[in-house]
Write a structure and sequence with these properties.
By secondary structure, the chain is mostly helical. The protein contains eleven helices and no strands. 76% of the residues lie in helices and 0% in strands.
């Protein structure tokens, strides 16, 4: 059974998703949670405290998701990470719905989110470097092209799902992963294409 604090956080997540952080009042959260505003204030002194509690838990879970790094020593490691990130965002889509509000209004949460983005970028770059060494990805034809590839993948990871939602489209895992793989495909060597066709295409294409 949920305690009151957990109930408040779960209710706030739902309200933030449906209405946006800026439009949710403490009274709405209290009413939805079935408690008084006074009881809510006992646990959280203001809405900012609730927002911080919600996002602290969220970003901790996301960091845990990213810990599944380098489980496979082939292209499947990219694919596994793409899947893990997609499922995390789908399970916590209120975060993406409120991304701009967080970046404008909650600097401490934004700093944590920036740290996670930097971690994702670093992991992508290391995966690219490893696959260059293994002959799966071609060496850079132009200086900095692999850095741009990693940055493009990060942008897709972060903004592809919100774009689908804004367009009223269903965000499907297969399309999310295809968008990312089509960024990587031009960089694969003939050896990489062979492995891609063997282990990635049967799963995603």
């Amino acid at each position: 059974m949920l305690d009151t604090k957990q109930k408040i956080i779960i209710t706030a997540e739902k309200q933030f998703y449906e209405h946006g952080i800026a439009n949710v009042r403490l009274q709405q959260i209290a009413d939805e949670a079935g408690i008084s505003v006074g009881n809510l204030a006992y646990h959280f002194k203001n809405k900012e405290a609730i927002v911080n509690a919600v996002y602290d838990g969220l970003l901790e879970k996301f960091s845990s998701t990213l810990s599944t790094y380098m489980q496979h020593h082939n292209l499947l490691d990219f694919d596994t990470q793409f899947s893990n990130i997609f499922h995390f965002f789908k399970a916590n889509d209120y975060f993406l719905n409120n991304l701009w509000e967080i970046e404008r209004t909650y600097p401490a949460i934004k700093a944590e989110w920036d740290n996670i983005n930097n971690k994702i970028l670093l992991q992508l770059k290391k995966r690219v470097e490893l696959n260059v060494k293994k002959g799966m990805i071609e060496p850079e034809r132009f200086k900095g092209s692999h850095e741009l590839l990693a940055q493009s993948m990060l942008l897709t990871i972060t903004y592809w799902i919100p774009q689908q939602l804004l367009k009223g489209k269903l965000a499907k895992e297969e399309n999310f992963k295809k968008a990312l793989w089509h960024l990587l495909l031009p960089y694969l060597s003939s050896k990489g294409i062979l492995e891609f066709n063997q282990i990635i295409v049967p799963v995603n294409f």
